[in-house]
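[Structure tokenization] protein backbone as discrete codes

[Encoding] learned vocabulary of local backbone shapes

[Begin record] amino acids and matching fold tokens:

___
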Amino acid sequence: MSPRAVLVSGASGFIGRAVTARLAESGIEVVVALRRQRDIPGAARAVDAGDLAAPDPALANAMRGVGTVIHAAGLAHRTGVNPAALAAANVTAASRVAEIAASRGVPRFILVSSAAVFGKTRVDVFTEASEPRPDDSYARSKLGGEIAVRAALAGTATRLVVVRPCAVVGPGCAGNIPRLARLIGKGLPLPFGAIRNARSFVAIGDLTGLIDAAIRADDPPELAIAAHPEPIGTPDLIRALARGLGRRTILVPLPAALLGAAARAVGKAALWQSFAGSFRADVTIARDRLGFTAATPIETALEMTGTALR
């Protein structure tokens, strides 16, 4: 598919900003939809997005001549968010943008969802065909957004591609990685040396590369997981982040079962699962259908993240 202009919602966020810069570098005209005016590197022009969850978002005119809409807007990495707010941002808004794209005859709609819909930890290596197991309000809202967008585009000429990235790392990322960096920065011994797990991540540059491939593909899959083919264990993750921070870290091998019990006792079971459990993705679909394989080692992405957090 020959790339035409692309509209990116959520362009001021971590993923949206990186996607905008990547596409502009590859010669694609990028229109960014923003709630507040700000400079977004690579944007050819900006439009007022208004409230995307409102009955009539201010995007219809902005989609003239657009070949792909990338919906990267939404709520993530915030604690204590009301489930209703998550539903408005991640379900209703996604559905409204998809409806407008279909009404304007936009050929392709790329929804940036999350591999969190598969859960926080799994024994199996999950694929696009694996059963979703969302286990918190955020993951349920992302899966709800996928369902709503599919319904909005059903029977239309707009082709849907859902991208489910595993945890995205790189300078500027949010969530558990900056929290862990702050813990490493204290210089104290950490009791995580006995954790034996394997978790999939994806570097921000590789996620944008997969999205670029999904724009250009003649026959993209409806669903693609974004991850590096090699997972990483939590001790190695900590070491890589510490190298970027320029800090020496000592990992004490306390039994993981003991730490898990302590986490459950203080109401942090979900955080422990996402930190110490295994979560391994199969990336065959991205390789075979999009010709894409993530190239940035996760250790490298973590070191870069740590350096940016110094």
The chain has ten helices and eleven strands. The longest helix spans residues 83-103. The mean pLDDT is 93.
